[in-house]
C-alpha cells in the first residue's frame, strides 16, 4: 500500500493514474500540512476513485490545541461529513506529550463513520509505545498512525518503527504508516528492516524530490519493485 501526498486536483489525478493506492490531501506542505479549502477538497475527492484522507489541522504552530481550536477542528469535520467526506488526518497531544484522548473521543462521538489517520503529532509523544496503546481503544476509527519513529525521518527511526510494527501485529491495532524521508534510495533498507504494510510518500515520488514538480514514474517504479521483492534495487 502506497499513500502519496497531493495538494491539488492535477496531482491527485496523476497519482491515481501512476498507481497510488491512497492520497493524503493537504495544503502548505512546507509547514507539514494544514486543512485544505472546502472547494479544493470537493474538487479532489470528485476527481479520483481511490481513497482520499483529508488533513484537518487549523494551523502549523502546535499539536496542543486550545478549546477554541478543538471546536474549529470539530466544525471542519462536521462540514466535511456534510459533503460525504469521512476520511481525515488528525493529530492532537497534550502539554505532557501524551495523546489528547478528549479530542479523539469528541471527534468519534460527532462522526461515528470517521476514518482517522493519526498524523506525525505522534512523533512528539514522550513514549511512542504508550501512545500506541492509548490509541488502541479507538482502533475502529483510528485506522492508522503516520510516524517516522519519533525522529526526523524513517531511516533514523528504523528500530522504533520495527517495534511499533511488531506491536501492531501482536495487538491487531492501528496500522503503522511510516512516512518522512522515504524514496527510491531509502525504501529498500527500511522495508527490509521493518516490513510495514503501508508507506507514505511526499517528495520521494516527485521529480527532483520537489513537491512543486510532477511525479517521477521511474522513481515510483523503482519503489514499487522494492516493495514487491523486499530487496533494494
Describe the structure.
- There is one protein chain.
- By secondary structure, this protein is an alpha/beta fold.
- Helix content is 38%, strand content 15%.
- It is built from 8 helices and 8 strands; from the N terminus they run βαβαβαβαβαβαβαβα.
- Strand 1 (2-6), helix 1 (9-17) and strand 2 form a beta-alpha-beta unit.
- Helix 3 runs parallel beside helix 4 (101-110).
Q: Mind summarizing the main beta sheet?
A: 8 strands, parallel
Overall outline:
globular
Number of strands: 8
| Number of DSSP helical runs | 8
- Helix and strand element order: EHEHEHEHEHEHEHEH
Strand content: 5-15%
Mean pLDDT: 96
Give the terminus-to-terminus CA distance.
19 Å
Give the radius of gyration: 17 Å
* Helical coverage, percent range: 25-40%
Class by SSE composition: alpha/beta
Sheet with most strands: strand arrangement? 7-6-5-4-3-2-1-8
Unreliable sequence segments? none
Amino acid at each position: 500500500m502506497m499513500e502519496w501526498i497531493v495538494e491539488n486536483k492535477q496531482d491527485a489525478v496523476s497519482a491515481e493514474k501512476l498507481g497510488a493506492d491512497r492520497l493524503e490531501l493537504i495544503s502548505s506542505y512546507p509547514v507539514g500540512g494544514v486543512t485544505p479549502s472546502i472547494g479544493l477538497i470537493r474538487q479532489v475527492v470528485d476527481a479520483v476513485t481511490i481513497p482520499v484522507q483529508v488533513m484537518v489541522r487549523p494551523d502549523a504552530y502546535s499539536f496542543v490545541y486550545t478549546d477554541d481550536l478543538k471546536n474549529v477542528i470539530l466544525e471542519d469535520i462536521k462540514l466535511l461529513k456534510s459533503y460525504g467526506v469521512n476520511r481525515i488526518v488528525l493529530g492532537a497531544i497534550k502539554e505532557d506529550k501524551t495523546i489528547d484522548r478528549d479530542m479523539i473521543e469528541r471527534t468519534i462521538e460527532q462522526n461515528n463513520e470517521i476514518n482517522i489517520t493519526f498524523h506525525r503529532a505522534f512523533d512528539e509523544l514522550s513514549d511512542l509505545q504508550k501512545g500506541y496503546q492509548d490509541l488502541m481503544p479507538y482502533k475502529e476509527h483510528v485506522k492508522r498512525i503516520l510516524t517516522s519513529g519519533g525522529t526526523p525521518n524513517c531511516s533514523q527511526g528504523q528500530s522504533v518503527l520495527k517495534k511499533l510494527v511488531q506491536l501492531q501485529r501482536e495487538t491487531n491495532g492501528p496500522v503503522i504508516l511510516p512516512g518522512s524521508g522515504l524514496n527510491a534510495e531509502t525504501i529498500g533498507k527500511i522495508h527490509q528492516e521493518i516490513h510495514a504494510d503501508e508507506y507514505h510518500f511526499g517528495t520521494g515520488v516527485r521529480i527532483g524530490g520537489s513537491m512543486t514538480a510532477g511525479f517521477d514514474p521511474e522513481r515510483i517504479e523503482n519503489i514499487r519493485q522494492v516493495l514487491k521483492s523486499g530487496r533494494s534495487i
